[in-house]
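Hey team,

Sharing the Flavodoxin family protein run so nobody has to redo it. Sequence (178 residues) first:
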Amino acid sequence: MKVLVLTGSPHLQGTTSFLADEFCDGAKEAGHEIVRFDTARLDIHPCIACSHCLKNDGKCVYDDDMSQVYPHLLTAHIVVLVTPLYYFNMSAQLKRTIDRFFSVDSVLLKMSKKLYLIAAGGVKDNWAMDTLKVNFHSLCHYLHWQEGGMLLVLGSSSRKDVENSKYQKMARNLGSGL
Ligand SMILES: Cc1cc2nc3c(=O)[nH]c(=O)nc-3n(C[C@H](O)[C@H](O)[C@H](O)COP(=O)(O)O)c2cc1C
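Structure output:
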């Protein structure tokens, strides 16, 4: 299957990038095709709600790096969102990417896909991931996509907190079990 991984951290060697690497390695070993975009490194303009796409066959007013993402978003069977917890939600870098789904919304709504979520945050309390979980459920509900699975890692402020931990294996298993 084709798997689109969208990461949202500016740290290429950080906590969530490490978990994404493990997930991708597991998925590759299981024979899946992986396409990964580290969205914080891309030039992606936030949606300005200008409705240009609604009047122009889904073409966004911005011709930026989303043009690399769209073809894979439309053809992937599985989409994986990977984000550090920023103020108890996904990072702005990932959110701006998801907001740009808007221009292809009508197509996405008719497609059968599975969504996964991988997130890490420094706080140890269970409630810290509540907003992110609701957001994930809402996205699946709205897009009519199947909920694949979530790996939510609490108490992890940096990469060393997840390296050689049970979360490393869990991320790999999530990928190999697709
Ligand atoms: C702007 C900012 C906001 C953050 N907000 C939260 C938060 O609300 N809850 C939390 O548990 N950790 C928070 N953190 C900590 C990060 O989620 C944590 O360090 C994570 O491991 C970073 O992952 P990364 O290395 O993949 O970017 C925040 C960090 C930053 C820079």
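The helical segments are 15-29, 52-55, 66-75, 92-99, 105-108, 130-143, 166-176.

Ping me if you want the raw files.
A.
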